[in-house]
Amino acid sequence: PEREDFNQKIKMIFGRIIDNNSKNQYLKIDAYENSKCNKELEFYPYSADAQYLYVDKKDHFITYFDAIPKIIDYQKIYPELSKYEENSYTIDTADGVIEVSMWKDLNNLPQERYFNQQRLISRNKYLFTDDKSQFPWLVTKDDYFMRRLITVFGYTEDKRLLKWALENTHLPFFHTYAKDNDLEELGKLLWTKDCNGEIRVHQNTLDILKEMSTPNENLYIMYVAEYLTNLEHLNANKELSDAQKAKIAAHLMYWGEQYKYDKLYDYNQMFMGHFWHYKDDGTYDKEFKKNNYYGLPKFKEWYEAVKKEENLFLDDQTIPDSPQPLDYKHKARPIRK
């Protein structure tokens, strides 16, 4: 890709700004959720503990820091190097003398090399040249990376990727309450926190959820409602302020409240009504007003309306004995308080 296109893609996908005037040719991107904001340039060979991506600002590609024999057939291209592997070598370490392993002795090196080459090529073609033909291989062989494009970096521009991620998130039918671990994984697809502290709720993900939902196949809607109901996992996140939690709640409620006014769904108080009666002690309402309802057109109208409604959760506290909470439409479903 051309430099400008490459720079824009790096910013859009990974949230990093390339300074082409810097003397450093590389940027390091940490793919771990808890350390993605660590920008210190370190060169560590790829391992389970150092899965760093390196952005080559000069040649416009991303890569792991792999050893050269894992990328090219060094024996064929540089046959003169074979003399260095003719003899054995030892190293004196704190744990004693150990023998150095030779690349030539690794039986699976050709297979590993081919995989590394394919991964390098497919990632860069998919991300920077919009080559969608790479998608099947990546989600099959490189699914860890593909999922983290969304969950860690908040990349939601590829509708096909979002749908794949949602379909491969463990969201089983639940009797009474969804499991916290399942809700947490869903949350990673719904919003991310950028390194500057900005919360981004992923409207593209919500749009896909709507496309994948019908009145009879509405488990995704129920999971978003359950996510809002189970705010404890957000409250337990000490890194989130009330303002940040309010922004997440507002966007998810606003998305869900549309179904209250759709006769095919008619979910009544399942979103804003339940939140107002059981989750908002005034803290969130204050944040909503302070932020002018985040520019969401009908938010104020809808939220003010639920404040005047009778609490339907008090009318019927029974929970249907059913393997899925999908039939309790006309009354607000008494999900956890």
Account of the 3D structure:
This protein has 337 residues and is mostly helical. 40% of the residues lie in helices and 8% in strands. It has three domains: 3-65 and 108-149, no CATH class; 76-104, no CATH class; 156-314. A hairpin with a 2-residue loop joins strand 4 and strand 5. Helix 7 (180-190) packs across helix 9. The radius of gyration is 25 Å and the shape is elongated. The model is unreliable at 317-337 (pLDDT under 50).
Question: Which terms would index this structure?
Answer:
337 residues, 7 strands, 14 helices, 8% strand, mainly alpha, disordered C terminus, two-stranded antiparallel sheet, single chain, 3 domains, three-stranded antiparallel β-sheet
Q: Gap between N and C termini, in Å?
A: 52 Å
Mind telling me the C-alpha Rg? 25 Å
Mean pLDDT: 89
Unreliably modeled segments: 317-337
Q: Helix/strand/pairing class, anyone?
A: mainly alpha
What is the tally of helical segments? 14
Number of domains: 3
* Secondary structure tally: strands: 7
Multimeric state: single chain
Strand content bin = 5-15%
Compressed to H and E, one letter per element, the order equals HEEEHEEHHHHHEEHHHHHHH
Helix content: 40-55%
The 3D shape can be described as elongated
Spatial strand order of the main sheet = 1-2-3
Q: What kind of sheet is the major sheet?
A: 3 strands, antiparallel
Give the helix/strand layout.
Elements: H1 3-14, E1 26-30, E2 52-56, E3 61-63, H2 74-77, E4 90-93, E5 96-99, H3 109-128, H4 135-141, H5 143-151, H6 159-167, H7 180-190, E6 191-193, E7 199-201, H8 203-211, H9 219-229, H10 232-235, H11 242-257, H12 272-278, H13 283-290, H14 299-307
Antiparallel strand pairs: 1-2, 2-3, 4-5, 6-7
Helix pairs in contact: 3-4, 4-5, 6-8, 7-9, 9-11, 11-13, 12-14
